[in-house]
Design brief:
This protein has 91 residues and is an all-alpha fold. It has one domain (7-90). The protein is 79% helix and 0% strand. The chain has three helices and no strands. The protein has helices spanning 7-26, 32-57, 65-90. Helix 1 (7-26) packs antiparallel against helix 2 (32-57) and helix 2 runs antiparallel to helix 3. The longest helix has 26 residues, at 32-57.
Length: 91
């Protein structure tokens, strides 16, 4: 099956996600909960991009990307649910 991504596009996606993740960490003190969510989601996307680059290059060297992604996504999901519950109580 032919990939819908090029190596350069996948690397560019990774670079932008790295920058988003860096900025989320940098500005975490502005709104810790939301920037933590952004941080974790950017890491999830970054891992997907890393694995895609590796697949396109013909060898996936990342040991367990699925476990990493599921853990980071679980954290982001829990944080988002907690944020939602808190905001519902305010209304």
């Amino acid at each position: 099956m032919e990939s819908k991504f090029t190596i350069s596009a996948a690397r560019e996606i990774r670079e932008r996600l790295d920058e988003i993740q860096f900025l989320a960490v940098k500005h975490r003190s502005d709104n810790g909960e939301l920037f933590d969510i952004i941080d974790h989601l950017a890491r999830v996307g970054g891992m997907f991009a890393d694995v895609k680059v590796q697949e396109l290059e013909g060898y996936v060297q990342t040991a367990d990307p699925q476990d990493y992604i599921l853990k980071k996504l679980s954290i982001a999901y829990s944080l988002m649910k907690r944020y939602d519950e808190k905001s519902e109580k305010v209304l």
